[in-house]
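Q: Please design a sequence for this.
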């Protein structure tokens, strides 16, 4: 624990406050010599009373602010815990006159952290600038479940850790950690699930509801899917979409257009009330 770093962090006006709380927890684990620390995500969740998704989002925000960095080293029993360095010299450099740390804009970051924010009630996904492709996501028809055609470079560029090799099989939370570590969205703009969403004519609300259910099913320790490992999670997400696993949408037989089922509407009400 570094009292000096904690003292400096407490003087910062980092927004949001949940993000500052994570930084305080990191400082609580840092050493005075090089300002490094390697608390597990589980520890950060317990120390800040935040869920895993929120902690990961805040870690990414702190990296975007230039307040922490991934040293590239790994520690812990599994040898997979990220070693962070708290960049104390940026406490002043990145602060405004009133001491507020302003988050730097990252073209791959969204309000939801590593996940693209889908616009509500829009059947066509607007394409933001992506590190993988500058092409738009095509909408080729409603209810079309044909395998989307992808550029080979997309699959290989998204994450090398998702190659079809048993040695690279990971749980979803491990995949999420890799995305955070590499600054990659969980569902990149040009990836298979996004292309498939356009083909099926799914709007932003449907995809938000789908993502909430998929994420919860694979990050809850009590869930059967929590320990499942996959070589490519983007393909797994696409399979769930094709099978309409959570029964969130259906297609009008006359027009072929997607619409929310009673299950989807119920989930939407719960989401809006949260």
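A: Design:
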């Amino acid at each position: 624990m570094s009292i000096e770093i904690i003292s400096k962090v407490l003087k910062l006006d980092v927004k949001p406050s949940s993000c500052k709380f994570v930084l305080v927890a990191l400082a609580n684990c840092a050493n005075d010599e090089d300002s490094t620390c390697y608390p597990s995500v589980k520890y950060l969740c317990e120390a800040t009373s935040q869920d895993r998704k929120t902690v990961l989002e805040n870690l990414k925000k702190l990296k975007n602010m230039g307040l922490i960095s991934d040293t590239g080293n790994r520690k812990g029993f599994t040898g997979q815990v990220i070693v962070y360095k708290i960049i104390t010299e940026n406490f002043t450099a990145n602060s405004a006159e009133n001491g507020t740390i302003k988050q730097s804009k990252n073209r791959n970051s969204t309000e939801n952290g590593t996940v693209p924010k889908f616009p509500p009630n829009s059947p066509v996904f607007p394409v933001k600038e992506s590190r993988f492709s500058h092409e738009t996501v095509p909408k080729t028809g409603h209810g079309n479940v044909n395998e989307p055609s992808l550029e080979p470079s997309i699959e290989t560029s998204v994450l090398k850790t998702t190659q079809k090799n048993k040695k690279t099989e990971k749980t979803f939370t491990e995949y999420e950690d890799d995305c955070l570590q590499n600054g990659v969205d969980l569902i990149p703009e040009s990836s298979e699930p996004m292309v498939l969403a356009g083909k099926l004519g799914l709007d932003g609300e449907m995809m938000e509801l789908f993502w909430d259910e998929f994420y919860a099913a694979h990050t809850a320790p009590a869930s059967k899917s929590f320990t499942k490992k996959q070589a490519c999670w983007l393909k797994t997400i696409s399979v769930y979409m094709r099978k309409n696993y959570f029964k969130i949408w259906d297609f009008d037989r006359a027009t072929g257009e997607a619409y929310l089922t009673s299950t989807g509407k119920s989930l939407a009400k719960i989401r809006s009330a949260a």
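Q: Thanks. Anything notable?
A: Confidence is low (pLDDT under 50) at residues 93-115, 119-165. The first strand starts at residue 13 and ends at 14.
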